[in-house]
Design a protein that fits this description.
The complex is a heterodimer. By secondary structure, chain A is mainly alpha-helical. Chain A contains nine helices and no strands. In chain B, a hairpin with a 3-residue loop joins strand 2 and strand 3.
């Protein structure tokens, strides 16, 4: 109990400091905080990564990701890495703060699921790829949603003809749109893979019996997310009219659906 | 001498009103002549830019012309009802008028604080008025002092530092919309100076191509050639009839034509976004009257900024420059004081004229006395004697006059002027009245 507490608090603090530094750099033009930003985020990523690595070493892959806490820490680590990547990219610098903030919230939120774990039935090899695919696609969808929200902010400032310094340090609309689209393009196939492996897994489970697994809350919401992202991605690729603000709105709203999927695992009888 | 300024600017009048009150370059001399004919003895300078219309007037008599008369003149010239625009006008007299001009040319009253364009525009307005013959001693001294103050402010304060102008704001806008420019096409509509200045800023982003279009192709070709040479950008001249169609390919458009009507209307633009596959399009309309119908911006992917919008955008980024305002105001007040002292200082021009006249009179009197006595002198000898006397008089006067000129800017000039008057018996009346003669 003690170790996860300190890992989460340390990770959340590191990401929060990085987000604060990004905020100061973007909106207050504070010079000299870049180093602080980089190291706070790097320390948080290393802390989270080291913890996940330690648990993997001690308990193996399936046992590790059977627990909600480790999955949440992994998701926070992925978002933190995405934030460091955004900071390193000249076109995306400014988006890092939002990603670090999401990582900090996830790290902190992980404390609430420390003792929660999946059903023993998930202790199967297929679960590893299922869980990892969901974790990476969730990180992509959350990243895409954050990019969408920032896009909407910049779009609003530009269309409303407000002070440009409000968004002066955040990426351009073009960069945000491209980044969001790329994350969707990575996340959607992985999410599809996660759903397929989930269906395969549940089909081979004997413990479910006559229960209608397809009515499980997590399954229903996951399928809903898949449909939304599927339609969204198709629309963005094949319906140019839905580019820009509409695509960003879709990505932002869909992100909350992803969060809902993660939050409803407690209600899922096939996961517990 | 009474000085009066009356006009409107971007703060007192919306762009829709300013564009109706604007004078184009060609009509300014005609307007100035008409104004001076309406109010004889009045000096006038007309400053008409995108953001302001101001009439600077000076007259020897107080109360001429009255503000109402000037408003009536503007109403008559533009065929407008005075009630439509009079509430948007402001006016200042005498010291306040001078202070206002100093603020204007120092760009403290500009849409973009500290921008340098207004100084050039004010100088051009002053030169136009001089060439038209509507500037004399009153406004000449005022404008010269204003330019001197502006120079000092721009040199010694931070008011003009940083990247704040219509052009640099346009670049900031473009950078907030696009992340890379090597695949972007910039389209310039019109070949005006303001548009060119904005374009020069945008070309620092190194776009893929620059397209230029203008009603007169040779001007477009000339602009394209100059910019291609200066920035190494690939340029192309687009026939004016085709430019709307080419919006399907362009990414950034700067429009700055002299058209009285919008040249891009919503119905003409309607099919363009679909053809562009809804890629973002930045439209910068810096023309007054506006070139682009505001309804064009209803599309999500279109970012339309006119001259008023740029003001809104730049307002906050100018905060740093505002920090230098106190120092600027100190310089302006010092300039006003210097100007007031100059006005109150002895009129050296008329004193010099009176001194020359006095010496000429003495020479003529001596010649009149001596010539009759030179019975054997030829006409040529008499002319040589006259020239010699004239040269002697000039040489005697040369040093004192030089001294007067050299000290004109400080208080010593008054002492020297009074001394010279006393020494050579030149009264104030002689100095003021060119036709005056000593009894």
């Amino acid at each position: 109990m003690d170790r996860p507490l300190w890992i989460s608090l340390g990770g959340a603090l590191g990401f929060a400091l990085a987000a604060l530094a990004a905020y100061l750099r973007v909106w207050h033009r504070s010079v000299g905080v870049g180093l602080w930003l980089r190291w706070a985020a790097v320390v948080a990523v290393l802390l989270n990564g080291a913890y996940v690595g330690y648990v993997l070493h001690m308990h193996g892959v399936t046992e590790t990701f059977r627990h909600d806490y480790e999955s949440a820490v992994l998701l926070a680590t992925l978002l933190g890495l995405m934030g460091i990547g955004a900071y390193a990219s000249a076109a995306l610098r400014g988006l890092d703060g939002f990603l670090f903030l999401a990582a900090a919230l996830l790290d902190f939120g992980a404390l609430m699921v420390i003792d929660q774990s999946m059903t023993v039935a998930t202790y199967r090899p297929w679960y590893v790829s299922h869980g990892l695919a969901f974790a990476v696609s969730a990180a992509c969808f959350i990243g895409s949603g954050i990019a969408g929200m920032v896009y909407l902010l910049v779009h609003r400032v530009l269309r409303g003809k407000h002070d440009l310094s409000l968004v002066g340090g955040v990426p351009s609309l073009e960069a945000l749109e491209r980044f969001g689209r790329q994350l969707l393009a990575i996340g959607f196939p992985l999410f599809t893979y996660g759903i397929l492996t989930g269906i395969c897994g549940v089909a081979h489970r004997s413990d479910i019996g006559q229960q209608a697994w397809y009515l499980d809350a997590a399954v229903v919401l996951s399928l809903l997310v898949w449909v939304v992202y599927g339609l969204g991605l198709s629309a963005i690729l094949f319906m140019p009219r839905l580019r820009g603000r509409k695509a960003a709105t879709l990505a932002s709203c869909a992100m909350f659906l992803v969060v809902a999927v993660l939050a409803t695992r407690d209600l899922s009888f096939i996961h517990r | 001498m009474r000085t009066l300024v009356i006009g409107c600017n971007h703060r007192s009048a919306r762009v829709a009103l300013r564009e109706r009150l604007a004078f184009d370059e060609a009509s300014v001399p005609r307007a100035l002549r008409s104004l001076v004919e309406s109010f004889p003895g009045t000096e006038a300078v007309l400053l008409s830019t995108c953001n302001r219309l101001e009439l600077y007037l000076a007259h020897a008599d107080q109360g001429i012309p009255r503000i109402g008369q000037v408003i009536d003149f503007l109403a008559g010239w533009h065929d407008l009802d005075a009630a439509e625009f009079a509430p948007a006008l402001y006016s200042h007299e005498d010291v306040e008028a001078a202070r206002h001009l100093f603020r204007v040319v120092s760009s403290l009253d500009s849409m973009v604080l500290g921008e340098s364009q207004i100084l050039g525009q004010a100088k051009a307005a002053y030169e136009t008025a001089k060439q038209t013959g509507t500037v004399s001693r009153g406004l000449d001294a005022l404008f010269r002092q204003a330019f001197s103050v502006a120079k000092e402010i721009h040199t010694h304060t931070g008011i003009a530092t940083g990247r704040v102008s219509v052009g640099s704001t346009a670049v900031d806008l473009a950078r907030q919309i696009f992340s890379r420019f090597e695949d972007k096409i910039v389209l310039m509509v019109g070949a005006g100076k303001m548009g060119e200045m904005t374009l020069r800023h945008l070309l620092t982003t190194h776009p893929k191509e620059l397209w230029v279009t203008n009603r007169t192709d040779p001007r477009a070709a000339d602009l394209a050639a100059r910019l291609s040479q200066r920035y190494g950008v690939h340029t192309r001249v687009i026939p004016f009839a085709e430019w709307i169609d080419r919006l399907a390919e362009a990414d950034i458009v700067i429009s700055s034509t002299g058209s009285r009507e919008p040249i891009l209307k919503a119905k003409d633009f309607a099919p363009i976004p679909a053809r562009r596959r809804y890629r973002s399009l930045l439209l910068i309309d810096i023309a007054v009257p506006r070139d682009i119908d505001v309804a064009v911006a209803e599309q999500d992917c279109v970012f339309l900024y006119n001259i008023d919008d740029l003001q809104t955008v730049t307002e906050k980024t100018l905060a740093r420059r505002r920090g230098a305002l106190d120092q600027c105001h100190e310089i302006i007040e010092a300039g006003l004081l210097a100007f007031a002292e100059r006005l109150a200082s002895p009129d050296l021009g008329s004193l010099i004229e009176a001194l020359s006249r006095r010496f000429q009179e003495i020479s003529d009197a001596e010649l009149a006395r001596i010539i009759p006595k030179l019975e054997n002198a030829s006409d040529r000898d008499r002319e040589l004697i006259r020239q010699m006397l004239h040269r002697v008089a000039q040489k005697i006067l040369n040093h004192p006059l030089q001294l007067l000129n050299d000290t004109a800017a400080n208080g010593a000039a008054r002492v020297y002027a009074d001394t010279l008057r006393a020494m050579f018996d030149v009264s104030s009346q002689d100095a003021d009245d060119p036709a005056g003669r000593k009894p």
